[in-house]
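re: that chain from earlier
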Amino acid sequence: MAKLQKKSINQPDETRKFPNGKVDLVKLDETTFGVATFEPGWKWSTDVKPLVKTDSCQVLHTIYHLSGRLHVKMDDGTEAEFGSGDISVIPAGHDAWTVGDEPAVGLDITGYAH
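^ sequence. v structure.
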């Protein structure tokens, strides 16, 4: 049975840092919330690929985009760009990068469960 819970992203359970970005994680039972901050110049294939050693990101993301702009290119060539107020489902098999001079910040509820 679910119970009433409260945590703050301002005091994350874990922070994962990588070049040009970070993800703050808060876990409530089986749900992990990740607030990702990708600085200007961040690109998955440059900053994360060397750490995870896959050709593209192999994680499903469900994101509420809070600020900035994030461009995504799927392995099949499909592309989309997301900004403040957008909600996205980004399947496994993609590259992504920050567009412009503002950090891309988003709340992801599926991508950081591991």
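The mean pLDDT is 95.
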